[in-house]
Write a structure and sequence with these properties.
mainly alpha; about 75% helix
């Protein structure tokens, strides 16, 4: 009697793709059919300081998230119908681009939350987007056929966008709006040894702002050098991601000092996921060097 062989990795990937297409469909429907007051739930995801109203710009951005979600849904439906997960004789174009649209929706949504200082919600979206990017990388790694030129050009760009607002917005606020944020940090660290260091808490916060903006500048330089292309060497991007990991680690230590465990564990995940992004932004060939 012949033994039935089941590829559990591909079967699990098919289940995941169906989960994501359903999630994208429901998300798009909810955003497009809800009243502005109901959409506050999206802005206040895991927020400690919920917003009371929603602006026109925020509504437009959520609408954009819905449109991208619809594109993701359509592409993933096509991939499911074609059983692309299980094929080995043709590229997984619909599946990869569908997951790419999921990634874009998460990155745009995360940028919106970061812009309104919803740190916890932005962290959740950063982790979710990173996992989707890793999933895309896994598919790419196991794919037999090559990638098209558009894919090589666009694949890594959402990672740049996500890291630019994750590091750039907090860094900008720390350095150019210090009068508004420094007092809050001084209250947070007033009973810690950090407040007793030369320059006190304010100096430490300014240093962190410098690190965050330095990562941002390196990312911009990497973009100008076209390092986002899959087959391009990435020395500046590597340096930016390494510095981002160091920055997250220092921020984590600071929160551990004041027993802010929830914030510290988020930063541990930020550092770990940034390492995974460092690996996943490289091509298969790079990984074998």
């Amino acid at each position: 009697m012949a033994q039935i062989k089941i590829d559990f990795q591909k079967l699990s990937l098919q289940v995941l793709s169906i989960l994501l297409l359903l999630f994208m469909a429901v998300q798009a429907y909810y955003i497009l059919s809800s009243e502005p007051e109901q959409l506050l739930a999206y802005l206040n995801l895991a927020s400690r300081e919920p917003l009371a109203d929603i602006s026109g710009v925020q509504l437009y951005i959520l609408t954009l998230v819905a449109i991208v979600s619809i594109i993701a849904f359509v592409l993933l439906v096509v991939a499911a119908i074609r059983l692309e997960v299980f094929t080995t004789d043709r590229p997984n174009h619909a599946l990869k681009w569908g997951l790419y649209a999921v990634l874009l929706a998460l990155v745009i949504y995360g940028g919106l939350l970061r812009s309104i200082s919803n740190q916890q919600g932005a962290a959740l979206l950063f982790f979710a987007a990173s996992l989707v990017f890793l999933l895309i990388g896994w598919i790419n790694y196991n794919e037999v056929s090559g990638n098209c030129a558009a894919w090589k050009l666009l694949r890594n760009l959402p990672v740049y966008a996500m890291l630019l607002y994750t590091m750039g917005l907090p860094g900008y606020v720390k350095l150019f709006n210090a009068a508004a944020v420094i007092p809050r940090y001084e209250r947070m660290f007033k009973d810690s040894f950090i407040a007793q260091l030369p320059g006190g808490t304010s100096f430490m916060i300014l240093i962190m702002g410098v690190f965050e903006l330095l990562v941002t500048l390196l990312l911009l330089a990497s973009l100008l050098k076209a390092e986002f292309k899959v087959d391009k060497s990435k020395p500046i991007l590597n340096l930016a991601l390494l510095l981002a990991i160091i920055t997250f680690s220092m921020l984590c230590f600071g929160l551990m000092v004041i027993n802010n465990y929830q914030g510290a564990i988020n930063l541990v995940f930020y550092a770990i996921f940034t390492f995974f992004l460092l690996v996943a932004t490289h091509s298969k060939e790079d990984l074998h060097l």
